[in-house]
Amino acid sequence: MKKGSIYRFIAFALMFTLCFSQLGLLKTQAAGNPPANEKTLSIGKAAKGTFTEPEQTHWYKINPSKQEVAKFSHYRVKLQSDDEVNITVYSSLENAKNNVAFDRYMGYSYKDEPAQLDFPIAWTGPYYVKVEYYGSEDDMIEEDAEDGSTSPEPQPEEKTEVPYTISYEGASLPPSQMEAEECPAELSTSQKENGKGILRDLRTIRDAVLSKTASGKDLSSLYYKAAPFISSKMIIDKSMREQVYKDLVQLKGLFTDVAKNGASSTYMITSADQKAINDLYSIAYKSVPAALKKDLEKVAAQTKLKDVTDLNVSSVLVRAKLVSANSVSTKAETRYIVKLKDGANAKSFKIKAQSKSASIESINPLKQSAASFDNMFVIQLDDSNGKSFSTSSAQGKMTAKQIQALPETEFIEPVQEYHALSMDSQYPYQWSLNNTGKNDGTQHADIQYESLEKLLNGQKLKDTVIAVADTGVDSSLADLKGVVDTKTGYNYVDRSSNATDDNGHGTHVAGIIAASANNNYSMAGINSHAKILPVKILDASGSGDTEQIAYGIKYAVDHGAKVINLSLGGSYSRVLEYSLKYAYDHNVTVVAASGNDGMEELSYPASSAYAISVGASNRLDIVSDYSNYGKGLDITAPGSDIPSLVPDGNVTYLSGTSMATPHVAAVAGLLLSQNPGLKPKDVEKRLTDTAKDIKFDEKDAPVYDDEESPAEPPAPGYDYVSGWGRLNAYSAVSAQQLQAQVNTFVSTQKVVTGKAQSGSTVKVMNGSKTLGTAKADAKNTFSVNIPAQKADTVLQVVVTNGKASTSIRAVVQKAPAKPAVKAATNKDEYVTGTSKANFTVNVKNSAKKVIASGKADAKGAFKVKIPKQKENTVLYITATNSQKQESEEVKVTVRDVIAPNAPKVNPVSDADTAIKGTAEANASVVAKVNNKEIGKAKANAKGQYSITIKKQKAGTAISVTAADAANNTSKATTVKVSDKTPPAAPSVNAVTTKSTAVTGKAEANATVTVTVNKKSIGSAAANSKGQYSVKIKKQKEKTVLSVTAKDKANNTSKATTKTVTK
Prior knowledge:
Shape: rod-shaped
Oligomer: single chain
């Protein structure tokens, strides 16, 4: 991280760095008394020792046995003495020689207050214990020098024996959030308004600044020696506590700036700050014995403690050798990153850029160690001479605008900071691996680790490199030995190959992923086939900038990582997006934390399309309140109260999406161990398809007026809060082992198909209901018959074989669009219409058997040849895509467009009152005269009809048509009304024996015939007036003549008889 303060440090670091003992590793210079003549302690047995003079050191050793490692989590080391005696426990001989110890394993005892240290059995041992005596308050002279000059030598005293007792016993402690031990700063600020912030800044300063140099380590070490004496004074002296608090408040601005900006702090020390520093130094000086006064005097002289007014913090830090000169780095807010267009001339760009703005100090390639980015450059703004140019200043923004306008520039963006995404909390053990339901949890709300372990037991999988791009990783812990690739790791904060963790976050993440299981140490990681590549991109405060993270991602890709864990977040960056795409294009899976703001917006890089975004769930299987959510969230994983390793050897509970992310990264690594050829999209799909649905519908949640509804409803099976569900490691790895794959299926299908290991049982479920079951065949395929399901229904396909069992989410897709079909008639020989381009079109009969098929062209038009169909025949037409997914059916009823035959009409006479005949069965038959309907009737099933009419005149033309049910009308049949009415009997004039003609009247134009005894004797036609004259031979008297008239229709009238007279 950035900066640290100095002098105040000397004054207050002596008193306060101890306060922040939770995670920090303080590396002090090798003590003057390295391990020698150490005595071996035995569990449960006390050992006694005696100091005969100040500045003596005694050494002890603890050899952990296999039985103790298996039985206990900690050794509880106790030191009892009536005098102030210091104790330190070291994890190894090397650390003891170099005086490298965690502050929580440093303590002191005094009368009635024994020191008790719970030391985790987290290293292979042996452990070394140092007991030191520096003298007592009685060793101090009455008048102490306070001005930083050398004080008079302490008065010689008689040697006094200082006895003590040391012992240790085994303890089994649950993971916990360790309490920081009481220290002078806390004693003076415990109830003060500003105390909490001051202590937080002091911890950052200690971890980020003092631990970086030999002088800084010496200073921290000195504090631990002085702490017992300062504490004992402050406990009984209220005025001293008040004075310390007052001085710390005065220095609050200095603390805040140094905590934020580290060794690069430009804070100017004021005269008031100088006075507070002097006061704190005086208090510390008066509190310690003579042996430690010399050390304080040395520090004061080295830092020129009395003369720091109006000096810049970073310059004082360098002068005091509390930081190295090259650690005074440039601030993120004074740098831009520029990406040039492909083919742009870098030299030309630099010349133009520097000529455009006087605020540019330098332009250098974005390159560090083994990581570099083509066509990217870092622009450093001039921050000298008090100009304070920054990317947020008006001059800085103007510079960016000028650079963006250059023709060579693709984009420019300010360097940004990103932060680790975790929060502290405290609950019982590794519930994320095996949730028994205790402690208010939900049983089985875990990643199914125990089933996973049984599944993988005995399998020989390839190791997969998982990069933990974080605060570093401590590889000295027994659970991480042999797991962390320290030789390949890199530190982009200090620009070194030492990627050791100085915060704890990265070690916690690495422990979740790959801590060795079943070795009796500490905890179990998820992936025993992972190699951790530590890439330190975050500093001791958990912060890192765009450059460091971009370098780290590319370095991980280029050095064999197949998975990158990014438990960090911040704002969008095109530079980081470029590096994420680089990883994606090289088939490296990136897993990123969604953020801890509880907001409906994903942190970056989780929001990137090139990363798997991970939210956090809790032991109730509900998404944690702090977990960021929204569109783009891929998956959730256990993230609340997750126990894992920290550098001091303890297993500590942390919460956050930072803790959820390594769960997913670990399982991604296992999938790649099973199949190294998987691409990032394959890994993501396997993880999300097998995730457990944990969405929670809040029925009674309050709704606020300013809340906006989502722009679009989530996809079936997806939830904006929990993504595709909570990680199920066992299901994901089982799916990969069984090579289980479910083919996409649609609402029209009644079969679910896919692939699975031969012999696997495949069951399709809708909730708790089983829809169908089948076995995978010898070709590793399966086909399960199920009832058709509605589109968007979420099903589970459960595949089981031996120890492996997976449940794969399968959403019923909407069927392909129905084809648009033109009407079909009983005349047609083709079914025509449109569908999606190149779809296969099937025509089915009423039994839904395919009777014809064809293919749509590139524009979607189709024309399928069919046999002619009878009217009212029902056809079903569907369209099928290349995946053989069929659309819903389009029902087509064949239209009748063929007119009936002209009806047959029986003869109609002028005497008839009905028209009869035959037509198409059930046809409607109509009779018309001069287009005027005179009658109609319906033919029966045999086609017979009878139309009632009025009598028509002979010769009238009657038109008769038949119309079927489709209103198709036949051609007309025309009949003329025939004449069937005989003429009236003709009138006959008198006929005598002299007459040679018979005359009279008859129907006009009728043929009049005269017969005698049925023998015709003559005939003639009547004229138009009906007059006729029939020539005959003279007839005898009394001859009877029979006269008839016949019309043109051959109707013959009744006969008129006439007797011949004289």
